[in-house]
Amino acid sequence: MADGNDQQSLSQSIKGRLQEGVQNSVFREKALLDPDTVIDEDRIVGRDQQLDDIITYLRPILQSNRPPNMLLYGPSGTGKSLIINAVCEQVSDLATAQDIQFGVVQINCQTIKSHDRAVYRLVENAAAEAGVAAEIPESGISTDQKLRRFYELLSEYFDSVIIILDEVDLLVGRQRDPNDEPAYSKLLYQLSRASQLGRIEGDISVAALTNDPRFMENLDGRAESSFNPQDVVFPDYDANQLQAILDRRRDAYRDDVLEDGIIPLSSAFAAQDHGDARKAIDLFRKAGELADRQGEETVREEHVRDAQKEAERDRTLTQMQGLSTQKKLSLYATAIVPVYSNRNLNAVPSTVAFRLYQYIAELLDADQKSRDSYLRYMTEAETYNFVTSEKRGRGYGSGVHKEYTFVDDPSVVAETLQEDIRLEEIENNEELIESVVNAQINDFFEGN
Ligand SMILES: Nc1ncnc2c1ncn2[C@@H]1O[C@H](COP(=O)(O)OP(=O)(O)OP(=O)(O)O)[C@@H](O)[C@H]1O
């Protein structure tokens, strides 16, 4: 056990290391790169039309009129939450000045499993917004009783409320039958009807946020007609807009720590997907975190590339968790072909990959599946978007074969899988594997 002096020096060294980390960090105000921060208006880029629309729709609150319901849709990271929250913040300021009790009740539906839970979360959030207790239990009472408490809270404490349902399409609930009404449809109907029927004294309006442009088609007819929203569309950002978004958060970093290429590169990577601002900001932040972790004074392009690799690895890992061992082996054997190949080989011929699969399966003492099974596994890998494939009439030799191209960097896929399946044997035999890969490729191109 450490004695008193040891304890003291240990805690001093922890303090020292903590302080050192803070002082030497490349960040000045990292919160600017936190996805949940509602940034100032002057940092918002390229959403003038959407801001105009939402300002127009919410202005009636300040004239003590009911605003319309709204449907905000567009791919992830296109600013739906940011824009609605930014306008609500300003409405809130002006409403307070006019003595109007305005509230925002927001839930993210992604993790909410049922209609009942959603209503309870609304009660909790409305109570928190009003600064009072929810006063009802989470279970043991009916959903109707919860809804009544929700209406009571709104009527008692607010003149006007915006209910924001983020990721509304994910509030499906427990459908016993695919034809059952999804939970979001029921909730939208109840909330819009309650307002129309005067069950709530003040003015309420629902803003539903979704990535699904066909969301309205899934609504029950009566929900559709009572919800009846104003649409606001959020298109993808292009690389220039992403650059402008990052540029306006440059001050998250200390002066002179960013190499020139950091912002363009982070934006270019994010634009490759669909122009997701969240992704651009995440890369921009992670690059700095990597620089901090390595104790470096500047953020370099290499940090952005490493951050992008890490993000790919995380995504790949999440997607791969569901695959069986045989599927992982098939994908691994295919990925190592371009990794170990001496030629510049992007598209992997299935013939070569299958031979590698057989070799690896033998090396690991695993079951060896047939060529058909291997091809089937790879077709599944295609549906998960790990690879794309093309059929080729073979110029060299005979027959038709498939060629697989990896969507992400194949070395990331191989590394991820290598960590996942028991592959010590592979690590011990890397040179051998490299020679097998190249022998098979040579055989293939020489038509053997
Ligand atoms: N026009 C913009 N200007 C500045 N920052 C933006 C802009 N659009 C989005 N962002 C930032 O990108 C991140 C993601 O934005 P937001 O959460 O609003 O996207 P979303 O469309 O609601 O995504 P999702 O559908 O995944 O919830 C946030 O950090 C936000 O501040």
From TrEMBL:
InterPro entries: AAA+_ATPase, AAA_16, Cdc6_C, Cdc6_lid, ORC1/CDC6, Orc1/Cdc6_arc, P-loop_NTPase, WH-like_DNA-bd_sf
Nucleotide-binding keyword on record: yes
Pfam families: AAA_16, Cdc6_lid, WHD_Cdc6
SMART domains in the record: AAA (SM00382)
GO biological process: DNA replication
Its job: Involved in regulation of DNA replication.
Name listed for the protein in its UniProt record: ORC1-type DNA replication protein
